[in-house]
Design brief:
The complex is a heterodimer of chains A (261) and B (439). Chain A is mainly α and 261 residues long. Chain A is built from eight helices and four strands. In chain B, α11 crosses α12. Classes of the chains: A mainly alpha (261), B mainly alpha (439).
Chain lengths: 261, 439
């Protein structure tokens, strides 16, 4: 009873605090995030499609740079076929990851190489492990990051290219890096991209901007893999509805032409 | 379809007649949706009843199919929504239709309500019709709120935490109510389970109240832009084909706009942060409700001071609910004998001021309270704009409308719809406004 009561009060207090925080809604004035610049993306607009070459390079950046800390758990390896990878390539990419499976006939859990139908294996078994390995800040899963920020892809690109030395008056806690686009301007992720950090298989020069651009295109696809289908169907649906509306309107005019209203 | 009812009962022939003489569904449909006499002068604002009916059915149908894939468990809910988005055939379409359908339902219901306010549709003899409409609004809000919790994103969780916590402001029983809503001591799995159950239930209650709304409508008949009751067949048109046709046009146009958002900007009305899974230990910087709650949210936050013995928090909750409940008594607050704002020169202005005020309230609800309204003018903050607009919201109903009923001199009202419509524009002939008689 005592424990329940204590728990109850803690929960109520937490709720009330949230409520109070909300109603007063005070903003931390220091460290307002800079708005990301608007970029011209291939996927934008009603006919926009995924830039496959860029997204394929983006996968390479993810595999070689990001995947050590960030998961991509909503995406299955088989989905990579949509980016133009062959079945053999997908299997090869999957096989580089280990996933836990089981229990086997002896009742043991075991690790095996991932197969195409598995979803991307996360680098840490749970959030606590991710925190313990990363100075207390768990690296977020990248599956939906593009959709989870108001700036979308512009924000991700700005963040990845926005690392710089902190201004003289800004004091950073140890383990944090300065990034003007991040809320609070102090980010736990160290600058991940360096010139020629990856060696692109298609020979593209791996500048920081190029890698940020490619991995953002990849993350955009990962966040909204049905985008192209959606826009293709949408174009037909909206066109149909416009014509339908026009025909119905003409019929209505005709029908109403002999009554005063 | 012209066959009338026979003495033996039942219209039509063959199977239709056999059924109709035992259960007169065809007679009912013929009478209420085909022959039903509607004023001949509806404008396009009279489309929204049909649009809302369509949207309600669409929401129920997409919702049922989503429920077949969704998992109401805190460990699975977020991922199950992503499974719908990625792996279920056309799951993305179902979900985006459902999410945007909620937004467009509120767009339509707000237009429908403002239409009623402009043309005085709430006045006698349509008070109950109006009040049933307010019940539908309340149920729709509860349904939308609980539906927004189901994806178990950050805004789902924190929105649920904040809104359910409001009930703790109620004296004596508040804490017990909150525990009951949560099914425990914080927003957690039991909360998600019961919200899912209720989110599935409430639309069917809405459907029931919509039926009552339509029955009440068919007793009193529809209001119209002139606010004058039809006096006879010269004032009306049969609902079918004239208004089924016109409603089809309005519905198709409305659905076109909705489809443009569903297919080309499906997350336009959504809060990006809800694509992050709920994290009970990580409070978002700004907790904002969906756009359609923002005006009421602004009223809630604007009472940040104690009123006599009522604490600020309770005062805010009371004000927020009062903002909706005041609509129930609107038919009795407005004593003007004239319905339509067309003939109410002063009320017309106050209507538009009220509408603009409501939009500003929505703006206020979406901003941090201590942000300056105009950049550079630090002294005038969002909270101050909130005080003014909240005051005006209630003043409109409790002061302006009752006083206008006494002091406003309405313009002459036409004797009949046909006189105004067919009489070549020579509208009113009566010298002074007279109370409307029932047709």
């Amino acid at each position: 009873m005592g424990i329940v009561s204590t728990f109850r009060h803690t929960a109520a207090a937490a709720g009330l605090a949230a409520c109070a925080a909300l109603i007063s809604t005070s903003v931390q004035a220091a460290g307002e995030a800079k708005d990301p610049e608007n970029q011209d993306w291939h996927f934008e607009g009603i006919f926009g499609t995924v830039d496959r070459a860029s997204a394929q390079r983006g996968l390479q950046v993810y595999l070689e740079v990001c995947s050590g800390c960030h998961g991509l758990k909503q995406v299955a390896y088989r989905n990579l076929a949509e980016l133009g990878f062959t079945e053999a390539e997908v299997k090869a990419i999957a096989a580089e990851f280990e996933v836990e499976d089981g229990p086997n006939d002896d009742g043991e859990m075991f690790f095996r190489p991932a197969i195409a139908s598995d979803r991307f294996a996360s680098p840490f078994p749970n959030e606590q492990a991710a925190k313990a390995a990363n100075n207390g800040a768990a690296p977020p899963d990248l599956s939906l990051q593009v959709k989870a920020h108001p700036g979308g892809a512009d924000y991700i690109y700005a963040l990845l290219t926005g690392y710089e030395d902190p201004p003289a008056d800004k004091e950073l806690s140890p383990g944090l890096a300065y990034n003007a686009y991040f809320r609070g301007n102090a980010i736990a992720m160290p600058n991940p991209l360096f010139e020629d950090g990856v060696e692109y298989t298609d020979g593209t020069q791996a500048t920081v901007e190029q890698m940020a651009w490619d991995v953002t295109n990849f993350m955009q696809w990962a966040a909204e893999p049905t985008m192209e289908t959606r826009k293709q169907i949408g174009f037909k649906v909206v066109l149909f509805l416009i014509i339908l509306t026009a025909i119905l309107y003409a019929a209505k005019r005709k029908m109403w032409s002999n009554v005063d209203h | 379809m012209s066959a009338g009812t026979h003495q033996s009962g039942g219209m039509g022939t063959g199977v239709v007649k056999w059924i109709d003489s035992r259960l007169p569904v065809f007679t009912y449909l013929q009478k209420e949706y085909a022959e039903f006499e509607a004023p001949r002068n509806f404008n396009w604002f009279w489309n929204f009843g049909a649009i809302l009916t369509f949207l309600l059915v669409m929401m129920i149908m997409t919702g049922i199919f989503l429920a077949m894939q969704y998992q109401p468990n805190t460990a699975l809910a977020f991922d199950s929504v992503e499974r719908i988005m990625r792996d279920v055939n056309y799951g993305w379409l179902l979900r985006y239709l459902h999410a945007n359908g909620a937004t467009f339902f509120f767009i339509a219901i707000y237009i429908h309500i403002f239409r009623g306010m402009y043309y005085g549709s709430y006045k006698a003899p349509r008070e109950l019709l109006w009040m049933l409409g307010v019940v539908i609004l309340l149920l729709a809000m509860a349904t939308a709120f609980m539906g927004y919790v189901l994806p178990w994103g950050q805004m789902s969780f924190w929105g649920a935490t904040v809104i359910t916590n409001l009930f703790s402001a109620i004296p004596l029983v508040g804490d017990s109510i909150v525990t009951l809503l949560w099914g425990g001591f914080s927003v957690d799995n039991p909360t998600l389970n019961r919200f899912f159950a209720l989110h599935y239930l409430l639309p069917f209650l809405i459907f029931g109240v919509v039926i009552l709304h339509v029955i009440a409508l068919h007793v009193t008949g529809s209001n119209n832009p002139l606010g004058v009751d039809p006096k006879g067949p010269q004032d009306t048109l049969p609902f079918h084909p004239y208004y089924t046709m016109k409603d089809s046009v309005g519905l198709a146009a409305f659905v076109t706009i909705m489809a443009a958002f569903v297919f080309f900007a499906p997350n336009f009305f959504g809060e990006p942060e809800n694509y992050l899974e709920a994290a009970p230990l990580n409070t978002p910087a700004h907790i904002v409700p969906e756009w359609y709650f923002l005006p009421f949210f602004a009223i809630l936050r604007s009472i940040d001071f104690d009123i006599l013995f009522i604490e600020a928090k309770l005062g805010g909750v009371i004000a927020m609910f009062a903002a909706i409940f005041v609509l129930f008594v609107l038919p009795w607050l407005d004593r003007s004998p004239v319905r339509s704002a067309k003939f109410r020169p002063v009320y017309k202005w106050f209507f538009w001021i009220f509408l603009i005020n409501a939009v500003i309230l929505g703006y206020v609800g979406g901003k941090p309270t201590d942000a300056p309204v105009f950049s550079g003018v630090e002294g005038f903050q969002i909270i101050h704009l909130g005080y003014i607009t909240t005051f005006w919201y209630f003043a409109h109903f409790l002061i302006v409308i009752p006083l206008l009923g006494i002091f406003e001199r309405p313009k002459p009202v036409p004797k009949s719809i046909s006189e105004a419509v067919l009489g070549g524009g020579a509208a009113g002939t009566t010298a002074t406004a007279k109370p409307m008689e029932k047709a």
